[in-house]
């Protein structure tokens, strides 16, 4: 009897141990499965991340090239027919002025400045017409061209001050006659093809810069001994001069006025600044060159 009782107790204990073990397994197995599943997901995410980084590194040069291509702004070239017509016209006028005023530099500059400011008047007139018809997009361009003609106007005033009362009636008639005809031509060109009209001024300013540079080099000693005209002092110390270069391409720093030599240096640099602004207008349709670009002459479109 005692033996049987002992066997029943041992059997009951064994059964309870088995039941407890099964219960522990039931609780542990889901936890292990959950931990394993989470661990597997972490490993998978790490692998995907590493693959993505690797692919990104490989694609980076290609992506950079694509972005750089999208951000590159290429200068526009001009229609070859318009380019040739402009060049023939301006070269012809320049040669005619040089022949007529050979040995008379100030008279030549007087005529050159009278003609050089005309395109800016014409551009302003064309922009006024467009504005009257409802196009309000050219207001900043209008301010720019007005400031440009004002600059050329003061160049003309300086030449008149240097000539005094010595301006020949024939010289005035030639300069004013050329200016009137050129005005209507530029206005019509601007209404039809603005870039072509602006290119006309670009060529004029390039010739003006070269002409003044040659004159300064040839007459340096004489110019340094001559005084500064009052109109030059007034203009180059005024806000009108500063306004012009506040919304156009960068100009060289202003040369302090100590003699007539410095006046002509500033006039020459004004022409160079106009030229740079006009090249930007033709090639990029904006008055300030894009970052990283230097002013270069407009080229004809290659067929």
UniProtKB/TrEMBL annotation:
It comes from the Eukaryota. It is found in: Membrane. Its main location: membrane. Its cofactor is Fe cation. Gene3D superfamilies: Alternative oxidase (1.20.1260.140). The chain crosses the membrane at residues 42-60. Belongs to the alternative oxidase family. One of its GO terms (cellular component) is mitochondrion. One of its GO terms (biological process) is alternative respiration. This is Alternative oxidase. Pfam families: AOX (PF01786). The keyword Zinc does not apply. Keywords: Electron transport, Iron, Membrane, Metal-binding, Oxidoreductase, Respiratory chain, Transmembrane, Transmembrane helix, Transport. It comes from Aureoumbra lagunensis. GO terms for molecular function: alternative oxidase activity; metal ion binding. InterPro entries: AOX (IPR002680), AOX_sf (IPR038659).
